[in-house]
Amino acid sequence: MGAEEAVFTPDRAALVARLKALLPAHCLLLDDEELRPYECDGLTAYRALPLAVCLPETEDQVRGVLRVCHQLAVPVVARGAGTGLSGGAMPHAQGVVLSLARLNRILRIDPLARQAVVQPGVRNLAVSEAAVPHGLYYAPDPSSQIACTLGGNVAENSGGVHCLKYGLTVHNVLGLRVVTGEGEVFEIGSAAPDAPGYDLLALLIGSEGMLAVVTEVTVKLVPKPELARVVMASFDDVGKAGDAVAAIIAAGIIPAGLEMMDKPATAAVEPFVRAGYDLEAEAILLCEADGTPEEVAEEIDRVGAVLAACGARGLRVSGSEAERQLFWAGRKAAFPAVGRITPDYYCMDGTIPRKRLAEMLKAIAALEKKYRLRCANVFHAGDGNLHPLIMYDSAVAGEWERAEAFGAEILELSVALGGSITGEHGVGVEKINQMCVQYRTPELETFHRLKAAFDEAGLLNPGKAVPSLHRCAEYGRLHVHGGALRFPELERF
Amino acid sequence: MAAPTGLDELAAAVGQAAAERTPLRLRGGGSKDFYGGLLAGDVLELAGYRGIVAYEPTELYVTARCGTPLAEVEAALAEQGQMLACEPPGFGRGTIGGAVAAGLSGPRRQQAGPLRDFVLGVKLIDGMGQILDFGGQVMKNVAGYDVSRLVAGSLGTLGLIAEVSLKVLPRPAAEITLGFDADEAEAIARLNRWGGQPLPLSASFWCDGLLLLRLSGAAAAVAAARAKLGGEPIHDDGAFWQGIRDQSHPAFASDILWRLALPTTTPPLALPGLRAIEWGGGQRWLAGDLESTAVRAAAARAGGHAVLFRGPESLRCREGAFAPLEPGLLALHRRVKKVFDPQGIFNPGRLYAEL
Ligand SMILES: Cc1cc2nc3c(=O)[nH]c(=O)nc-3n(C[C@H](O)[C@H](O)[C@H](O)COP(=O)(O)OP(=O)(O)OC[C@H]3O[C@@H](n4cnc5c(N)ncnc54)[C@H](O)[C@@H]3O)c2cc1C
After folding, report:
1. Chain A partners of B338 at a C-beta cutoff of 8 Å?
2. Is-contact A423 A380, C-beta < 8 A?
3. For the domain that residue A53 is a member of, what is the CATH number?
4. What are the chain B neighbours of A248 within 8 Å (beta carbons)?
5. How many domains are contained in chain B?
6. Which of A106, A480, B84, B139 could disulfide-pair with A383, CB 3.0 to 4.6 Å?
């Protein structure tokens, strides 16, 4: 099982006839020009044109599409807004894209129970906006929140700058309605604190559209804090900034957000956003305190003292909500800002223990020389989640290949440092080889069997997230020369 | 069999049981022998595989072997001013492995979230005797399916949790308990109203006309919330909430105890035997020899479920400790069980008769 990559040879004409019988014309895209916008997600380096794109408007239509594809053995790739950064929603060339974008209604908001029930195509920010009148919001706030959908968030277990204190998607989703590849519907989790049986909710969250298609999401809403303020600290050394992150946590403080940007990142962002970042600093930290005014004042004082003791060369505290938003705007716009100074960039997503931050940054600096490419670094520092942005030009022959190899080294170093190849963007097609580094054969076999427990025919997002053992064997041959591992100086975990 | 003290020894014991198709009953401290369905199989004692493997306060995680007493883990955390924020009940002899396998959370769940939220990684011995590593020690990890959280609450039916890494959090700087007179309906209404406000509510317990609230957080936040909420301050050196957590409080004293997990806003149910309400209305305890179909139906109608939490083994086996699953969902559970334990050797019948 999972030993070889599966091959699919569907009869396109038969498929199209069945889909046409099932869906109204405006819910089915078949022409190349119509399919083109769907050929990739946010990771544009990987592309494929699907056989068809289905845009169902009801759960019944979703089931219908899945049943047809199951009968005809056609791969199905679920898709939200296509902002994913690991190629998770990249189409299968012999398959159908099942877009959930039109299932975009907020079905219910229950302010007293602090819950919302939404369809999977609802945008992340739309949930919080709808909850504003009740003083509530949906906590996970990916930087892509104006565009990305709840279905995509569930599939990737997305996080945001506030997830250190408020958790990831898995901590904020209470229930799901899902349809399996065979068209069977399950209610998973519930509006109660828990549900009987295995915690399939935890299993489905972060499963990258491999186990089932999400058609409804019940989320937890939380009360908006009375006040939030951000401290911005600048450091003349990234190591000191990294130590300051650990020191804040050692002081018993879990800030609402704790983010770091290095000099190349602030240099890219500042002209774009004018957030007032210290451009001389090697690194800046953004640390948010929220709660009652008294609580915020107390925490800001404590954080300020810790940062000063850690050698911060400058400290600024947001004086107003507008200024707080501005400090964050720079961080949240980091990806597009870097996108303005380079033709292309490649965003990585490794996680490491916080204490290894400085070490990782030093290694990245060395890799910049090795691959002759620049890299700007933004981090969810409080969570040890790195987003190195490798800058390259896809028009220059060989640059993408160098960027990809650069990224692969960062991911493998993340594993060697005791972390993971992905914190919130998922494996997709992008990190599939690095799965062979993070896991051994028995774990990978377990993942394949788990997939089969939900999707025996293997039609949901085939070839993604979990590598075949065959692929790992090949990758191992390529990358382990004469038994020498890549980072011999580091202890293996 | 003598209690194994090494990982390979444990894996070998499982491998042998698998080869002989001998069912195993996994047992940590035995503190939760009362919980779940049938206790069947040869006892495999896990208490010998113990000790904290790694604890890094600034990385916010602790890794411990399954047989480590929960109390030992908590004492180590307390020394550094940290805690297991979900407050899993240890019922005296509980081990960390047992706590994760049972998946139970204590009063602070209301604020901090359930135990499974804190599971970062597990070393699992599957039903073939293979040692598997899932997750890790970092806060964020979406590589591969989230098996670590799946096994939380699976009552040892998927695999032997040999080691577990849990996220830890700082203890709150300040904590007070307030008391309010309230009948059941009023308590539920207030808890939901307060729940929608930015208040540092870390626990709630209603019993017999008295609603107790615990506030935890920065001193300033606790003081501000206290001024806003009113109520009577209640002296507690920690023992009161510990009594709720370990169910030594008299409200839980009964041979038969039902746990109802419900949407917090569920109005008072027309069922006899209500003893206590926790988690802002989301967890309610009923005692006595109740009609189980009626209890289960009422919980299901409200959008929740009912667990026969304590009761004679004969009753738990007859009625099922846990609410029955729809046939499709049960079939899915069986497929998932087979992924990890194809021979069905782990704790047969402990979660459901069919698993
Ligand atoms: C500028 C930018 C900033 C970003 N910032 C962040 C960030 O801060 N934090 C973060 O975590 N991510 C971030 N991302 C990544 C991305 O936005 C998230 O992964 C997001 O959750 C993807 O949502 P989507 O709707 O675009 O999903 P898509 O990209 O369409 O799909 C993602 C995956 O989900 C699956 N999927 C989609 N819908 C369903 C469904 N209904 N049922 C089953 N499977 C489904 C797809 O098959 C695919 O595997 C960022 C991306 C960009 C471009």
Report:
1. 449, 453
2. yes
3. 3.30.43.10
4. none
5. 3
6. B139
pLDDT in tens, A439-491: 999 999 999 999 999 999 999 999 999 999 999 998 887 665 433 445 544 44
C-alpha dist (Å) from residue A5 to A1, A476, B46, B177, B226: 10, 17, 40, 59, 61
Q: Do B143 and A420 touch (CB under 8 A)?
A: yes
Are residues B95 and B69 part of one domain? yes
Under an 8 A CB cutoff, do A134 and B196 touch? yes
User: For atom 16 of ligand 1, which residue has the closest CA?
Assistant: A84
Determine, yes or no, domain membership for B1. Answer: no
**pLDDT tens for residues A304-333?**
999 999 999 999 999 999 999 999 999 989
ipTM of model: 0.97
Contact B281/A213 with Cβ under 8 angstroms? no
Distance from CA of B306 to the nearest CA of A (A): 9
Instruction: State the amino acid at position A138 in one-letter form.
Output: Y
- Supply the CATH number for residue A428's domain: 3.30.70.2740
User: What DSSP state is assigned to residue B139?
Assistant: S
Give yes or no: residues A249 and A364 share one domain: no
Residue A220 CB less than 6 A away from ligand 1: no
Is A490 part of a structural domain of the chain?
Answer: no
Dist CA B114 CA A173 (whole Å): 12
Cβ of A158 closer than 6 Å to ligand 1, yes or no, is: yes
Among candidates B132, B171, B333 on the partner chain, residue whose Cβ is nearest the Cβ of A197: B333
Give, to the nearest 10 degrees, the angle between helix A321-332 and helix A263-273.
120
Do the chains contact at A191 and B59, CB–CB below 8 Å?
Answer: no
**Statement to judge: residues A406 and A285 lie in one domain:** no
Structure pTM? 0.96
Q: Which atom of ligand 1 is nearest to the CA of A103?
A: 41
